[in-house]
Amino acid sequence: MLPMTSTYALRPVVPEDAAAVLDAFTSAPDMDRQGPVVDEASAGEYVSWLLEESRRSVAVTHQDVMVGLVAATVDTANRSAWVFYWMHGQHRGRGVTARAVATVADHLLGSGLERLELGHRVNNPASGAVAEAAGFVQEGRERGKFLVDGERVDVLTYGRLVDDPWPQVEPLPGL
Fold first, then answer.
1. The domain containing residue 120 runs over which residues?
2. Which of 84, 118, 121, 123 is most buried, taking the most CB atoms under 10 A from its CB?
């Protein structure tokens, strides 16, 4: 049985999260789209990338073990950010990702950013449901953006502005 959603929290990503990142990246076949994490060394490099100054990276935790991520690459000149997220395969389907993305997006928009953006493959409707639950509005479609298994896949793009209605999602604690 999966853990209850009340046992999830947010905290900053730390270098010690590399083992949990590797575990998450091996938890589901679609995680390979998140980056080249295949061993301890590449997991450490991914965490270092997450900790670069231009990123705001938040770990979604269960019992203080990282099981998900919500991060944003910040464009300070435009007061905007590109948001991305993932969840360990065993922790999907419980509404935790939507709560985490909404909580982080609210925090980013409350701390000086004015626009957030994200995108997902059209063959990943669960990611679209997360975006919409977190208050993002679909703005467009990038045709044939990604090459996946030899086929071009469209990407749906979303935005959320500081003055858009904020979602009615229970925030995750810890941020």
1. 5-161
2. 118
Q: Is 92:31 a contact under the CB 8 Å cutoff?
A: no
pLDDT tens column, 5-41: 579 999 999 999 999 999 999 999 888 888 889 999 9
This model's pTM is above 0.70? yes
**What are residue 57's DSSP bridge partners?**
71
**Contact partners, residue 149, CB within 8 Å, separation at least 6:** none
Distance CA 24, CA 60 (A): 12
Q: Distance (Å, rounded) from C-alpha 12 to C-alpha 33?
A: 23
Distance CA 113, CA 174 (A): 20
Residue 120 lies in a domain: yes
C-alpha distances (whole Å) from 3 to each of 85, 92, 96 are 20, 11, 11
